[in-house]
Every structure is written in C-alpha cells, then in structure tokens.
Amino acid sequence: MAQKKITESKGRGRPRAYDPQTALQQALGVFWNTGYSGASLDSIATAAGMNRPSLYAAFGDKHALYIKALEQYWESASAAMQEALMDKNLTLKQALLGFYEGQLSIYFSGEGQPRGCFAIGTATTEAVEDSAIREVLADRLSRLDADLETRLRAAVSAGELKDDVDPAALAVLASSLLHSISIRARAGKSRTELTELVRNAVNVMCGV
C-alpha cells in the first residue's frame, strides 16, 4: 500500500509533501535525545521539516505525538525481539543472545553518547505523573514479559531448562536485564562491556 503523504502549503506554488513515518521518526529522535519535557514543538517541527500547524494537523499536540512515537518505537523494537525469540532453529542461549544483541544495536544507534532504550529512557520519567504514558509503558512491558515467558516455556518443554524452572519469574528477570543494559549504556558502559554482561547473565539463566 502506498504511504499517505502530508502536504504543507509553502507560499505560492505546489505544496510540499511529507512522509508521516519519516516525520514521526524525526520527532522520536528529538524526544530520545532531550526527553519528553525537554522537547519543544519548535525543535520537533524543525527536525521533521514541517511547520507547527502542519505538525499539529498530522499528529495532534506534543503529548499525542509522543505517544505515537513511543508506540512506533515499541513496534520496531518488538519486531527485532520477535525475530530472535521465535526462531525455532536457535537454542535458548542463541535466541537470548540474539535478543539482547539486537537491542544493544538499537541502544548504541545514533550519534554521540549511547541513548539506551527510548521507552526506558523517556517514558519511565513521565509515567509517574502521566497515566496515558504509564498505561502504554505497562502494556508493552507486559507483552515483553509474555513473549519471553513463551520462549522459556518452550525451552522447558524441549529439555533446555529444568522442569522446576518458573518461566514467568525467569521472564521478568530476563526483561529486567534488558532494562539494566539500557541504563548502563546511557551511563557510559561500552558495548563490549555490556555484551560480556549479557553473555554472563544468559549463561546463568540457561544454567550453564
């Protein structure tokens, strides 16, 4: 299906067209770098290459735009997670290592200091006072735990994990490691250091 374009009048002549997904990705980058509170509509509009009225017409106010950016980030991150976790040709250890390495690639994307996870870095701060952001964050974390639990239950059934392992509890632990490496990336830990941390943690989770 062709991507719908946003048009913006630019004085005389033909209106300029904008790709909504590209504009949203640019807005996400501003939120990621500055946080929700630190992002101004002017800075977002500049990054997206749109004027403020066009930005509002396309996405709504700053809050609505942030929610859309948060949901887009989770959709992209979740696709990478699913690719690793649901590959039946991988052992549990291989799947988990791929799962974390895929997210580290996201955390270390962009220029300058690693930004970590967009959701953990920005939504956790706003969730304290903002119920809408809190609901999105809680829902996506629950989905993440559920995906990990599904993979871990399959590992128990396949004999990769002991029968007395609690997949639900281990899933929360595996999810917590993801949050930890995100914070550590933002705090200055190198990718090499975090990759080693992941390997050690996965060995523990897999009983190696």
SSE layout:
Layout: E1 6-8, E2 16-18, H1 20-38, H2 41-48, H3 52-59, H4 62-85, H5 92-107, H6 118-126, H7 131-157, H8 167-186, H9 191-205
Antiparallel strand pairs: 1-2
Helix pairs in contact: 1-2, 1-4, 1-6, 4-5, 4-7, 5-8, 5-9, 7-8, 8-9
What is this entry, summarized?
This protein has 208 residues and is mostly helical.
User: What order do the helices and strands follow?
Assistant: EEHHHHHHHHH
**Domains (count):** 2
CATH topology of the largest domain, by name, is Tetracycline Repressor, domain 2
CATH architecture of the largest domain: Orthogonal Bundle
Keywords: DNA-binding, Transcription, Transcription regulation
GO molecular function, one term: DNA binding
Organism: Pseudomonas frederiksbergensis
Pfam family, one: TetR_C_13
Question: Can you tell me about this structure?
Answer:
- The protein is mainly alpha-helical.
- The protein has two domains: about 1-60, Homeodomain-like (Arc Repressor Mutant, subunit A), CATH 1.10.10; about 70-205, Tetracycline Repressor, domain 2, CATH 1.10.357.
- It is built from nine helices and two strands, in the order E-E-H-H-H-H-H-H-H-H-H.
- The chain has helices at about 20-40, 40-50, 50-60, 60-85, 90-105, 120-125, 130-155, 165-185, 190-205, and strands at about 5-10, 15-20.
- The protein has a two-stranded antiparallel ribbon.
- Helix 1 crosses helix 6 (about 120-125) and helix 5 (about 90-105) runs parallel beside helix 8 (about 165-185).
- It is elongated and about 60 Å long.
- Keywords: DNA-binding, Transcription, Transcription regulation.
- This is TetR family transcriptional regulator.
- GO terms for molecular function: DNA binding.
